[in-house]
Amino acid sequence: MEPKVIINYQSNNLRYTLQELTNYKLCTWQANTNSQFPLLDKMIPSVPDGIEHYAIKAKDRSDLANQLRKIINENNIDYIFPLYNDMLLPYIHDLVGITKEQCNILSNKENYTAHAYNIGIPVPMTHTSLRKTFPVVAKPANGTGGIGIKVLENWSQYRYFLDDIHYNDLDAGYIFQEYIEGPTVSVSGRIVNGKFILDCIYDIEISDLPYRAETGFTWPSKSSTPVQSDIKEYCRIMCESIGYDNGPFMADFVVRDEVPYLVDFSPRLSTSGQTIIKYSADCDYNRIVMDSITCKSDLRVQLDKAVVFRHFNLEKGKYNISMKEGAEYNELSMPNSQQYLRRLDMLVGLNGYAITTDKRLLDAELKWKNVLAHINVVKQA
């Protein structure tokens, strides 16, 4: 019998999943856990016809987890596909094969940073209260998929950060990390029955805005081979040290003077990594990950093409947007005509993106710039 998999079809990040997991019986769930942001409901993608679906209305994450457990038990669901927000992990850790002890480390940035330091992995100095040294990186302590991160240059920016753009819906305080100057790289990998597999190390283009951590991703990585080897070893040590022996993982590092510093680690599928790998290796990466979780396969991906995956940079506002013929791309998502959602007192840009590939990164970059040149953007008054 085909295993039954429930998928959190909450965002466009899962746009490939239903197409790729054809060897599983699929169902989906979507939830609204915060009535403060009604516009978020309009962003949830429509579930295709013919898919068993569960809509959840929950007052908080604990309530959401309880309802999800009930759905899983009553409908004989075998697996949750592992693309979930870190904030939900403490409530569902056992459903995704994570012990309470592992969860206590992995669901809190302060805890896994301290753990990494104790096992010899370079990490930025991390504190729960702000010290006098600037610049410093402010991050939600419980992990938010990049939301709420901000580099603070001085006390004035810190006060503004707390007064005006503090994300009080994250249900957690902030930590403050040493700011490390250097390129950021991300890792996508898997553990299959104790076997460590690193699928991809790719470059991240960082945003300076507190509501989006990244603006783009490129492969191949610009890091040197020794740095890549160190990153691979640190990821392996991290997984082994907590006894994580089956499932996907993602990690972020900042590289300074050829030393990679671990700044993020999570037992989940990387949303950007799945896209990079899909187009570089010409594979169904979601299926490879799901087959790994069920221990059916330890297949390694063969990265072959350079990939540029980048969001368009548009100011907030209303636009008339169209695309001229002649651009070459692998995937294109045009920006919406209305470029914002309201999050507390902030307007958050929801810009489209383009993905381009070629044998060389330079050629993939040229294709992406050509896509940008073919977009007509007229801002309305």
Name its key features.
381 residues; D-amino Acid Aminotransferase, Chain A, domain 1; 3 domains; four-stranded parallel β-sheet; 11 helices
Question: What does this protein structure show overall?
Answer:
This protein is an alpha+beta fold. It has 3 domains: 4-81; 182-306, D-amino Acid Aminotransferase, Chain A, domain 1 (2-Layer Sandwich), CATH 3.30.470; 307-379, no CATH class. The chain is built from 11 helices and 20 strands. An 8-stranded antiparallel sheet has the order 13-12-9-10-11-14-19-16, sandwiched between helices. Strands 3-2-1-4 form a 4-stranded parallel sheet, covered by helices on one side. Strands 5-8-6-7 form a 4-stranded antiparallel sheet, sandwiched between helices. The chain starts with a strand and ends with a strand.
Topology of this protein?
Layout: E1 4-8, H1 17-20, E2 25-32, H2 39-43, E3 52-57, H3 61-74, E4 79-80, H4 89-92, H5 100-106, H6 109-118, E5 126-127, E6 136-140, E7 150-152, H7 155-164, E8 174-178, E9 184-192, E10 195-206, E11 214-219, H8 225-241, E12 247-256, E13 259-266, H9 271-281, H10 285-293, E14 306-311, E15 319-323, E16 331-333, E17 341-343, E18 346-348, E19 353-358, H11 361-373, E20 375-379
